[in-house]
Every structure is written in structure tokens, then in C-alpha cells.
Design brief:
By secondary structure, the protein is of the alpha/beta class. Helices cover 34% and strands 25% of the residues. The chain has an 8-stranded mixed sheet with strand order 5-4-3-2-1-12-13-14, sandwiched between helices.
Length: 273
């Protein structure tokens, strides 16, 4: 019996226009009314989820920032938080000094980024996030100085590169650091503190809520969902999911533009055939 549904956001709950469809909202609300917890399980920070929290107040909890931030949207407070250390942040900055890269740092559940990168995120293949960052991100003229002065409070670093090749070179130079690293999108890397992932965040939130991982259904589409899909009792891949995700999941549903999340909830939780 599914007692908790862990939902990735981008490419899963959100369609290609970054919206939640009416059918998906309705299925989530029905699941919550039936007594099932529904949580956001995402690389986004709590501040990047405020719009969706307002749309779906039934979703109280978030496994945010790829497990670095466990958040209660109803109480508007952090339940658990994990941060990097100065040495690791310095190592990242040292490696990237000569790279053309956009930084995004998550501190206290909020987004900070470099002003120059924010001016045109299409240069780093993340133009779909431009409206969101324009709305919620705090720009800095010197983002590396900000990271250094807040090194003990950095929950997550997103690094956006011009190409997949640039990303790979940077990743190869940082593999020995105490970091959890996953590739995202076309040419991005998401860093969280060592040992922290969507899976560790899900485990923490399940302990808080008294839910066993075997009673969790997780739904996702990309490599940064792999750990949470592997840890959940039942794993569902979106139709638009990549081959790595589809290979490890128990079921595959429609894509994010055709209400795959609603299909999964109705079929595997609400038993609507």
C-alpha cells in the first residue's frame, strides 16, 4: 500500500511550459484526501517552489535541493538542512576560475546567482529557467565572493556550463572532493554535500512522517532522480524519462505533457483503471 508519493518537479509534475496541468492537480488532491502524503522531491530550493505550493497547498512537505533541505511549506520552516564546508567550496571555485560557467548557490532555501549569467541563461542551455530566476534569484556582481563568505551555509551549488564537454572536464577535476555530484539537463552539474542526495532526503522525511521507504512511490525522469527511484518501494518513470531512469523503474507512464503523474497516481495509488 502506497503511503507517500515523492514527485520530481521539472520534467515530471511540470509540463514543458513549467505548469501543473488540471488533471495532475486533481490526482494529487485526490491522493492527499485518501490519506496519502504527497511531497515535492526536487533539486529546486523552497523559494523556487512557492508558486506551486500556493497552487497545491495540499502538498505540505518538500525534499528540496536534492536532499539538502527538508521543508514544511505550511509552517514555512526548514525541518532539516545540510551544508557544505569552506574547503569544498574553495576547491570548486579554484577548478572553475578559468571556466565560462554560471553559478547558482542555495542558501537558507533561497537562490543566489551571478548577475552576468542571469542576464542571458540561454548561453548555458537553461533558458527555460530564465523567468523563474528573474523572479526569485538574488543576483551578485561577485558570486564567488558571496560563496566564500557564506561557505558554511551553502546547501547546494548548481553549475551551468556552455557545453557537455566543459561540464565533463570540470566534473573529472572535482571527483575527489566531499561532494555528491549529478549531471542535470544538457550541460549542468548539481552539487550537494557528500552523502546527501534525493534518496537521503527522502529517508529523512520518511522518518519524520513515520513512513517506511517500502511504502513510497517515487516518480521521476532524469539522472538526478536515480537515487530516490532506487530507494523507493515502487518506482515510476515518466514517458519522457531518459534510458537510465526507465531501466530501473517498475513502471513507465505517459510523458509530462500528457499527465503521466496523474496516470501513475490513478493507476497505482487510487486504483482507477
Amino acid at each position: 500500500m502506497i503511503k507517500l508519493i515523492a514527485l520530481d518537479m521539472d520534467g515530471t509534475v511540470l509540463d514543458s511550459q513549467k505548469n501543473i496541468t488540471a488533471a495532475t492537480k486533481a490526482a494529487i488532491i485526490r491522493a492527499v484526501k485518501s490519506g496519502v502524503y504527497v511531497i515535492f522531491s526536487t533539486g529546486r530550493s523552497p523559494s523556487e517552489l512557492q508558486r506551486y505550493s500556493r497552487e497545491l497547498p495540499e502538498v505540505r512537505y518538500g525534499n528540496c535541493e536534492s536532499g539538502a533541505a527538508i521543508y514544511d511549506f505550511r509552517e514555512k520552516k526548514m525541518l532539516e538542512c545540510h551544508c557544505m564546508n569552506l574547503c569544498v567550496c574553495e576547491a570548486v571555485i579554484a577548478v572553475l576560475t578559468s571556466c565560462d560557467v554560471m553559478y547558482s548557490a542555495k542558501v537558507d532555501g533561497k537562490v543566489h546567482c551571478d548577475r552576468q549569467g542571469l542576464a542571458d541563461m540561454s548561453r548555458f542551455n537553461v533558458e527555460s529557467f530564465q523567468p523563474l530566476y528573474n523572479e526569485v534569484a538574488t543576483p551578485h556582481d561577485n558570486i564567488t565572493a558571496f560563496i566564500r563568505t557564506h561557505a558554511d551555509r551553502i546547501e547546494k551549488l548548481n553549475l551551468y556550463f556552455r557545453s557537455a564537454e566543459d561540464r565533463q572536464r570540470a566534473a573529472d577535476r572535482l571527483r575527489d572532493q566531499d561532494l555528491s555530484m549529478v549531471f542535470a539537463g544538457e550541460s549542468s552539474i548539481e552539487f550537494t554535500p557528500g552523502g546527501i542526495s534525493k534518496a537521503s532526503g527522502l529517508a529523512s522525511l520518511c522518518r519524520i512522517l513515520g513512513v517506511d521507504l517500502s511504502d513510497v512511490m517515487a516518480i521521476g525522469d532524469a539522472d538526478n532522480d536515480l537515487t530516490v527511484l532506487q530507494s523507493a518501494g515502487f518506482a515510476v518513470a515518466m514517458g519522457n524519462g531518459n534510458d537510465h531512469v526507465k531501466a530501473i523503474c517498475d513502471a513507465i507512464v505517459a510523458d509530462n505533457d500528457h499527465d503521466g503523474v496523474a496516470e501513475a497516481i490513478e493507476k497505482y495509488v487510487l486504483n482507477v483503471r
